[in-house]
Amino acid sequence: MSHYKLNYEDVLREAGHRVTNQRVLILDAVCEGEGHTTIGQIYARTRSKDRSIDRSTIYRALKLFVELGLVVSADTGAGELMYEISKPKQHHHLVCRQCGKEQEVGQQVMQAMFEQVQNEYQFRVDTDHLILFGLCSNCRSAANDSVP
Predict the structure, then answer these.
(1) pTM exceeds 0.85, yes or no
(2) Which domain holds residue 138?
């Protein structure tokens, strides 16, 4: 999804922030990832267009974009955050630990689990971007085929 569909300039201005060339380049770099992208990838993409952008600028911009709902972040489980442009509907991901394949899961699938957590633990989940790790069907099949 493109950040141009988000009216990001209006979102930034309404929150009292300027639309700078560096912020636009950073949003462009997130978009170029076409899904989850790391800070290292964002840094490489922005530096190829503007050598003055440093990591601290990227960290500050991403923090702002997440706060404003332009970008979502998720922990990969390996201690690294991944970023992607916000989508109109909340979604989550299934990620295979073996091959890295990702599959999106709609909010409606996870809603039942969130409601159960609220009912049993009186805890309201407000996560809008969850990553679940495991093995995809192909990797499970391959593992079963290799067992003598």
Answers:
(1) no
(2) 91-145
